[in-house]
Amino acid sequence: MSEIRPPKPNLLRDSANRIKLGVFATNGGAAFTHHPDRFDGDWETQVRIAKHADELGIEGFISASRWKPFGGDQHYSGDLMETYTWAAAIAASTQRIAVMSTVHMTIIHPVIAAKMATTVDIVSNGRAGMNLVCGWYPAEVAMFDEEIKPHADRYALADEWVEIFDRLYAETKSFDYNGEYYKLRGAINQPRPVQNRPLFMNAGGSPRGTEFAAKNADIAFILAQSTDPLKIKAQVDQYRHLAREKYGKEIQIGISTYVVQRDTRQAAEAYVHDYVVTQGDDAAVAEFIEINVANAKTMPDGVIQQMSFALKAGYGGFPLVGTAEDIANSIKALSDAGIDTILLTWTDYEGGLRAFGKDVLPRLEQMGLREPIAATA
């Protein structure tokens, strides 16, 4: 008889650290830039980064997802590896870190998603999770012989998707489902997963998206509309209040960032200017904004330039720029504003993670935001 392995904790959900950390988008890179440091995501490097992040006690390794590039055929923005097969391979290469697949619910059927997520869950022994996205890129959806649905309809479909997925994960008998978007006969998911439910992330920011995240997600990600901690706290409080009052649940709040760490703040800011302003991929970002702005309900007037800058810097993330001390202080300010989870991107992931682990993590431990890895292993 084979030995039964006790399930691993999903650290993005279960870690006691005040600030949980994840490495985001190594499966293709996050910066829109022509700078030679732009990460190209070769597999051997990704495995080294995943193992190093695991050794550092970082809680999550999260993919981005893209089916069609911006900027024309063969543009690097389309070079993102498929996220479930990627996650299974990363899970087999690591020991503790949570592994998150980003999934387009409007493209990937929930029965297929449940089977793939279960596979990752078994390979990882309970460390699997998913970043749920509705999809908003018409050319991408058209590849699947579909038309982009109106904003509200995409979230209505997503609600059904999650309901079906949860039943497939939880139930052991076949069932029928009759919804507006899905009609299933004899649906079942085998083999059985390790977790009762994988960890769900979502970054819905419109009123309808916020409601979806509050209802369905374990971690809701905000797109920071300011670097002012008080304004970030207001966004955080909005999510928490909605989740508590309408759905009777507690959720974590996360934020994505781009990290540039140097010996001086001036050197860090000069590097950002070089890869974002001097060598930024303006054409691809302009196309991204042209497609996306009409659907970006969260954006106040007059922020297109800031959005362009942040996209080129790293998927629209919050800046963690400066010395190790500057970055640690910024992370503390985010924690004080109510942020629980921070996703990290770099142009040079391998060198950036190495410097972050050497110089920033010890400062976060001294601040009481994280326990030393020896205490959490």
Automatic annotation (TrEMBL):
Transmembrane segments: none annotated. Coiled coil: none annotated. Keywords: Flavoprotein, FMN, Monooxygenase, Oxidoreductase. One of its GO terms (molecular function) is monooxygenase activity. Residues 20-340 form the Luciferase-like domain. The keyword Iron does not apply. It comes from the Bacteria. The keyword Nucleus does not apply. PANTHER family: ALKANESULFONATE MONOOXYGENASE (PTHR42847), ALKANESULFONATE MONOOXYGENASE-RELATED (PTHR42847:SF4). This is LLM class flavin-dependent oxidoreductase. It comes from Sphingomonas populi.
